[in-house]
Write a structure and sequence with these properties.
This protein has 465 residues and is an alpha+beta fold. It has 3 domains: 5-176, Beta-Lactamase; 214-308, Signal transduction histidine kinase, dimerisation/phosphotransfer (DHp) domain (Helix Hairpins, Orthogonal Bundle); 313-462, 2-Layer Sandwich (Heat Shock Protein 90). It is built from 11 helices and 11 strands. The strands form 3 sheets. The chain has a 5-stranded mixed β-sheet, with helices on one face. The two termini are 58 Å apart.
């Protein structure tokens, strides 16, 4: 059976508290009873030793038991008051003194009642009726034997039994109070820990249903949970952004394909209905529209291929500056036509890359720069290197990119100022292809643009080994 995280935390905290508090109380109680039992045993042994010492001292005073019978009788009856029955025998085994039968029975009843009372009060204390025979000495000579009967070995006094019982009650009460306090704080802590996790879970459930927007999750004060919250918020934002891109992508693809298809359909229907003659020129226009659709689909396939098949890169070692100069020379006619100056500068650097695809990257970037740079403008290609990477920059003083669009220009079919791009024959795929090629080379591409002043694209790729 699955439990919620709140109940899991609560059960864990309560179980841990129960084990710790219960274990501490159990150990404390057992240690206390063990030490107290040792104390009682030592006290009884000391009392027995005192009785033995007193009897031996009485014998030494007169060197006989006969003259001290009165003193022995007083000592024996004093012991009876403490629930100790003594019978004294001389060295020949003859009885010197013993209590009367009535006194002995009374003392035994008193001992038995005391043991029963202790058993009821103490529960697990094991005491019983004990009988010992202790030899008496005068120097090294055995002069008699004392037969002692008492309740032992742990026959507590009434005050001692009350003390042990009270200590047990106090420890049990302390354990219960500790468990209650632990339960209280466990509930608070479990709620504090589980509430943000439950909120994040509900939030991610909504994300899974496609509901990317919602109220921001509140801070919990716990670093790991707040980091998770920030990651989920970022994930939600990214997914929402990607959903918007997908929606726009679907719309743009439909638009890009619908236009030539509509033209094709209109032209073919006109020729079928006899409105237009199926001339070579009209058929060529239909052929151009088919080529336009084919190129569009081919560009999309090419992006997917580049993104998913990095291993197919045909890497060679070549001079990046030399390649850039070659591409710039290829655009000389267009540059002269638009009255744009283009320069290539920097270091001659060898790179290990797919030369054809890097040719495509530079061609795309340079063509874009030419498209958006006005007559009399300037385009600069600059190649440099660091310890482990090669950097390629292309800078123009054209119209630039709005700051709110700069982070989106690498998305498929995204076009800043769509109306103008349409006039310039743009499909919004070129920069997406550039990004895919650079990532396939384990490189990075970034853009820095000031709207109305110009744009700089920076590409970084690893150096040749």
């Amino acid at each position: 059976m699955k439990r919620t995280i709140k109940w899991q935390l609560l059960l864990s905290f309560v179980s841990l508290s129960f084990i710790l508090v219960g274990g501490f109380s159990w150990v404390t109680l057992n240690l206390m009873e063990s030490h107290f039992a040792e104390y009682v045993t030592e006290r009884q042994e000391q009392e027995l030793a005192e009785y033995k010492s007193d009897l031996e001292a009485l014998y030494r005073e007169n060197d006989t038991w006969t003259e001290v019978s009165r003193a022995i009788q007083n000592l024996g009856r004093s012991a009876l008051q403490h629930s100790v029955i003594m019978k004294i025998y001389d060295g020949d085994g003859q009885l010197v003194w013993s209590p009367s039968l009535a006194e002995e029975e009374e003392a035994k009843d008193r001992i038995q009642n005391h043991l029963l009372q202790m058993e009821q009060m103490m529960g697990n204390v094991e005491s019983d009726y004990v009988e010992l025979r202790i030899p008496l000495y005068n120097g090294n000579e055995e002069v008699g034997i004392v037969d002692i009967q008492f309740g032992g070995p742990f026959a507590y006094t009434e005050h001692e039994a009350f003390f042990i019982s009270d200590m047990r009650s106090i420890l049990i009460l302390a354990a219960l109070i500790s468990l209650f306090i632990s339960l209280f704080f466990a509930v608070l802590l479990a709620k504090k820990l589980s509430a943000p996790i439950v909120a994040i879970n509900n939030f991610t459930t909504n994300i899974a249903k496609g509901q990317y927007s919602g109220l921001p999750l509140e801070e919990s004060g716990i670093r790991e949970i707040d980091d998770l919250r920030d990651s989920v918020n970022e994930l939600s934002s990214q997914l929402q952004h990607q959903q918007e891109i997908r929606n726009r992508l679907s719309s743009d693809i439909a638009h890009e394909i619908r236009t030539p298809l509509t033209t094709l359909k209109g032209n073919i229907e006109a020729m079928i209905d006899g409105v237009w003659e199926a001339s070579e020129e009209r058929l060529y226009r239909c052929y151009e529209e088919v080529n336009r659709i084919t190129r569009l689909i081919g560009e999309i396939d090419r992006i997917n291929e580049i993104e998913s098949q990095e291993s197919q890169l045909q890497k060679t070692t070549f001079d990046l500056k030399e390649l850039s100069q070659q591409i710039a020379d290829n655009f000389q006619a267009l540059l002269i036509e638009r009255n744009i100056d283009c320069s290539v500068s920097g270091d001659s650097i060898l790179v290990s890359a797919d030369q054809d695809k890097m040719h495509q990257v530079i061609t795309n970037l340079l063509f874009n720069a030419i498209k958006f740079t006005p007559s009399g403008g300037q385009i600069d290609l600059y190649i440099s290197q660091s310890k482990e990477a090669v950097s390629f920059q292309i800078t123009d003083n054209g119209q630039g990119i709005p700051s709110d669009e700069a982070s989106q220009i690498f998305e498929r079919f995204y076009m800043a100022e769509p109306s103008r791009n349409s006039q310039l024959d743009g499909q919004g795929i070129g920069l997406s292809i550039v990004k895919s090629i650079i990532h396939a080379h384990h490189g990075t591409i970034s853009v820095d643009s000031v709207y109305g002043k110009g744009t700089t694209f920076t590409i970084t790729i690893p150096k040749a080994e």
